[in-house]
Amino acid sequence: MTANGWLQIGVFFAAIAAVTAPLGRFMTRVFNRERTPLDPILRPIECVIYQVTGVDETHEMRWTEYAAAMVVFSGVSMLVLYLLQRVQQWLPFNPQHFGAVTPDLAFNTAASFTTNTNWQAYSGESTMSYLTQMAGLAYHNFVSAAVGVALAIAFIRGIARREQDAIGNFWVDTVRCLLWILLPFCVAGTVLLVSQGVVQNLRPYDVVTTIEGNPQVIAQGPVASQEIIKEWGTNGGGFFNANSAHPFENPTPLTNFIEMFAIFAISAGLTWTLGDMTGSRAHGWAVWAAMASLFLVGVTTVYWAEARGNPMLTAAGADQTASAATPGGNMEGKEVRFGIANSALFATVTTAASCGAVNSMHDSFTPLGGLVPLVNIMLGEVIFGGVGAGLYGILVFIVLSVFIAGLMVGRTPEYLGKKIQAFDVQMAMLVVLVFPLTILVLTGISVLAPSFGLSSVTNAGPHGLSEVLYAFTSGTGNNGSAFAGLNANTRWYNATIGVATLIGRFLMIVPMLAIAGSLGRKKRVPPSSGTFPVTTPLFSAVLVSVIVIVGALTFFPVLSLGPIVEHLLMNQGKVF
To answer: Reduced to 3 states, what is the DSSP secondary structure of residue 166?
Structure first.
């Protein structure tokens, strides 16, 4: 670890802290339908959209109607993307003449992009046409992100409102997120990325001759426009198989910083929006502090593990110390232009959020370095988390935290003046239980099935288990990154990971909306001497403890069989 590396991490963290309040304030104004500087341009467009689609923007929905609208919209969008992949060979903007995507892969991809997961069991530059990339995948990058933010806002309204059934209008929230939050920033971000060398064109691939005299295909396409929304909307995925490690997606240290910043910006801002809309900005900052502390612990662990290197290589005579001539540490699977610090930071950021974009290969990290990205997802990706998803995910943990605090003092738990009752806790526990159950059951079946599960694993022993575990954790957690040693483009993994993404999205959302509807109908009671304050460092500490304890109780046994035992074997000089 170097002072320069820590400086880069510190600058990134400071930038996220600085953007939290202004972006959060802007989102409050957007979703409260207050005037913003963009209104003269965007408000007329919004009105036309409602007129064409027949949406009544004054209509408020109960949580059941809100959930139904979300499910129907997502289902139709998923079907359209599936069909687009299946017929892309007959459609325009396909200069490489790619054929139809196979049914199982098309299902996996449609489910993945609809759920904001963007798990890719294919190589983008050799599978998807330009039209599929733009009209299919990039479209879902926008709408799946907008749906996540809309759901978070609906939850906030449930907390803020008193004795009301309605929590907003799904169509209005989604449209306003698209027009005010996602599109303007992505237009500016696209231009900025293009200025740094990120490719943006519709040309056929070039074929050049290498120095050895062999032909080489140079893939290209509309990359910058997809790159910015995959980060700003915490979608992940990539135009190229190498993702953000590819120089056409992420060519410079500045683009690397921009992409990491984009991953965290909206999610950090939503904590301020939570505090603003509920009338307790101190609570919003307390939630932000809990997220930030988990993030700092994670990035410190990854940076230390990767900078320390592999003791087996040191024993073999390799020099892994940092110097003016060598970066030191474990550089396997990392781009030299980013180094260990920015690779560790990017890996922590992308898995703390439900993004999944990568600028290095997580499969090549040391066991403890790879453990942190895995644990980040297992904790529910609430460490800032995906746009919207991170906030409503941590709100579920807040419900559990205040419930536990209430039990400790022998009083009915309260959250910002709303009593937390049995129904709220039951819905929160449903979310907490469905997530690990899906991961562990599918992982268990896969590692016990040689014909269709283990046959895709290229590494034996604990690392092979980690690869399968990471795949189902990433799918269920709607992250999309992977330990690359697993060949997931098979019927079994395409089907099961596709189903896992749907479970991880919709079986989490429906109980969450039920909690929002329940809270919205409740009266607000004044605080008393027995009320557990949710604006203090103690609350942040309790919230962090609940998140970590829930994760430890559910996943520690399988982690001890995977990355933990692999770390112990590595230190003993043993490898499978």
So the answer is: strand
